[in-house]
Write a structure and sequence with these properties.
The protein is about 45% helix and about 10% strand. By secondary structure, it is mainly alpha-helical.
């Protein structure tokens, strides 16, 4: 082999090695994104929901004036509800029950409505 032929062979070898080393560009449609794992579904607590708990607290109240908002929150906290986290939900539940007539507001207290007795 002459020097020129050996240089051509070496050049061909480097070109094929470089072509093999460079990965081919894959279209974006063919690349699959890894699937995200779904978080396991959280089961609801076995007890009553917040609105039913509030209705039960007001119904069980022996005071003829009813329960104040503070007393409702205090009783819910004793039952294990995070009152600071759910304060907006507590107000919304009370407003819905007032609108439906299930609760009646007497000054600053809440009593059970006439339809619930």
């Amino acid at each position: 082999l002459s020097a020129r032929e050996s240089l051509c062979i070496v050049a061909d070898m480097t070109e094929t090695a470089a072509a093999e080393a460079v990965p081919q560009a894959v279209p974006a449609a063919q690349i699959k994104a890894p699937k995200k794992k779904k978080a396991p579904a959280q089961s609801k607590a076995a007890g009553l929901n917040l609105g039913d708990q509030i209705a039960k607290l007001v119904a069980d109240c022996r005071d003829r004036r009813g329960l104040s908002l503070f007393a409702i929150k205090k009783s819910l906290a004793a039952n294990g509800v995070d009152v600071e986290k759910c304060r907006h939900l507590i107000k919304m539940c009370i407003k819905k029950r007032l609108a439906n007539g299930l609760l009646v507001q007497n000054k600053g207290s809440f009593k059970i409505g006439k339809g619930q007795c």
